[in-house]
């Protein structure tokens, strides 16, 4: 058996595993535990399964401590970056080390995180619209361009997002329109598909996540993508913190000249033991 903890950040939920634990097949482990019908469950958690498994290796000889983060998604793929996952990783590392700031090493770079009782703030780097960075099959940035019937702007916020600014995010059948955009020829590595709509002093958000292959309650890189695209389109000023609200709760994003930050709450749902080699019928925690 291996000990795991279930975290979530505004509903974006993750199984957290200390990378020192031996898990023979991480991809199979993630597919089994994340399954929304037969995956990990517990009386203290409102949902079966998870949006991913975070394998975290803490290196506390550094100051501040460093955490190497590997996110394996429900389909067994590895995501280069995840904003809410990184915030949960920071909360886990803070609990392990007693530190109130940590450095998170991801495949998209190293991110500084500050951990407070009211939430976790993480540096997300500079959003890029460069076609080579997203990537997109285009010579110029993809801005307000029709892709498979949806008008999108393409941006990389650690992972690629196709962001559509709409009047009402709830009026769009995301499950119906997103897959065609996610797999469009314009995106050689695929893309997350994010909807954004102005909402008072902020924006509402819905995201169909690549690797999850469905809509999630929250997406941190998607929230940053919403703010970045809003700034690109003249809907948001540089340096102004803005509220971005996915279904799972409110996040705060700031787009600055040389980067961006994401802030929001995290929570621990439960701690339990699961088999190192779980099948889809044995992922239930005690």
The share of residues in extended strands comes to: 35-45%
How does the helix and strand content classify structurally?
alpha+beta
The name of the CATH superfamily of the largest domain reads Diaminopimelate Epimerase, Chain A, domain 1
If you compute it from the alpha carbons, what radius of gyration comes out, rounded to the nearest whole angstrom?
18 Å
Could you give a short account of the major beta sheet? 18 strands, mixed
The number of distinct β-strands equals 18
Overall structural domain count: 2
CATH-derived topology of the largest domain = Diaminopimelate Epimerase, Chain A, domain 1
Arithmetic mean pLDDT:
95
> In DSSP terms, counting alpha (H) and pi (I) runs of 4 or more, how many helices?
4
Q: Give me the strand/helix succession.
A: EEHEEEHEEEEEEHEEEHEEEE
CATH class bucket of the largest domain: Alpha Beta
> How far do the termini sit from each other?
12 Å
- What coarse outline follows from CA principal-axis ratios? globular
Query: What are the segments in which pLDDT stays under 50 over at least 5 consecutive residues?
Result: none
Q: Helix proportion of residues, in percent? A: 10-25%
CATH architecture of the largest domain: Roll
């Amino acid at each position: 058996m291996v000990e795991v903890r279930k975290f979530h950040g505004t509903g974006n939920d993750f199984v957290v595993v200390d990378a020192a634990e031996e898990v023979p097949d991480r991809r199979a482990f993630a597919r089994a535990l994340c399954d929304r019908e037969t995956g990990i469950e517990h009386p203290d958690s409102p949902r079966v399964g998870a949006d991913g498994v975070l394998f975290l290796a803490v290196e506390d000889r550094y100051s501040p401590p460093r955490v190497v983060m590997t996110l394996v998604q429900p389909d067994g793929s590895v995501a280069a970056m995840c904003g809410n996952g990184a915030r949960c990783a920071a909360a886990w590392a803070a609990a392990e080390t007693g530190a109130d700031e940590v450095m998170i090493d991801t495949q998209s770079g190293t991110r500084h995180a500050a951990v407070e009782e009211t939430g976790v703030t993480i540096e997300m780097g500079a959003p890029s619209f460069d076609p080579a960075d997203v990537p997109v099959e285009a010579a110029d940035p993809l801005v307000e361009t029709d892709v498979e019937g949806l008008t999108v702007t393409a941006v990389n916020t650690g992972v690629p997002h196709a962001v559509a600014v709409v009047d009402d995010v709830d009026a769009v059948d995301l499950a119906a329109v997103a897959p065609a955009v996610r797999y469009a020829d314009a995106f050689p590595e695929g893309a997350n598909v994010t909807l954004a709509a102005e909402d008072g002093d902020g924006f509402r958000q819905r995201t169909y996540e690549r690797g999850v292959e469905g809509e999630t309650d929250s997406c941190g890189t998607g929230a940053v993508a919403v703010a970045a695209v809003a700034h690109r389109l003249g809907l948001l000023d540089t340096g102004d913190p803005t509220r971005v609200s996915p279904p799972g709760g409110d996040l705060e994003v700031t787009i600055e000249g040389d980067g961006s930050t994401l802030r929001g709450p995290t929570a621990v749902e439960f701690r339990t033991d699961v088999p190192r080699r779980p099948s889809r019928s044995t992922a239930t925690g005690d």
